[in-house]
Amino acid sequence: xxxxxxxxxxxxxxxxxxxxxxxxxxxxxxxxxxxxxxxxxxxxxxxxxxxxxxxxxxxxxxxxxxxxxxxxxxxxxxxxxxxxxxxxxxxxxxxxxxxxxxxxxxxxxxxxxxxxxxxxxxxxxxxxxxxxxxxxxxxxxxxxxxxxxxxxxxxxx
Length: 157
Fold this sequence. Notes:
single chain; mainly beta; Porin; eight-stranded antiparallel β-barrel; 1 helix; 8 strands; elongated
């Protein structure tokens, strides 16, 4: 079923040749943390050198097991909305994310703080990277807050 859906998207994009929508998966890591995200972008302005997109993404952290003794914030998942500026193959992404996280146990935990309780916050969301697109295929990589050191693949339609 998914294959049929994706083939319909690709054939429609090739007929239209106006790739205003992009959907992609990204994987990011910084050794102690791994995240996986799914994003949708819609082009709101475009010319030959420049493109401005609106992006909505959902991300989930897959592992945070090695840094529990640092006192760091350990993210669980996030929803973000951001603007993406593409200048040829360079992407700059700035926005805001709603995050759910827990506080990692520190070296001297405070007795009144529940370090296992989920908490919520609004966080800065952004990245700088490179993007390559050929026909309907998209490849991206870079570094960012919440996406970490990331690689991504997707389809434009």
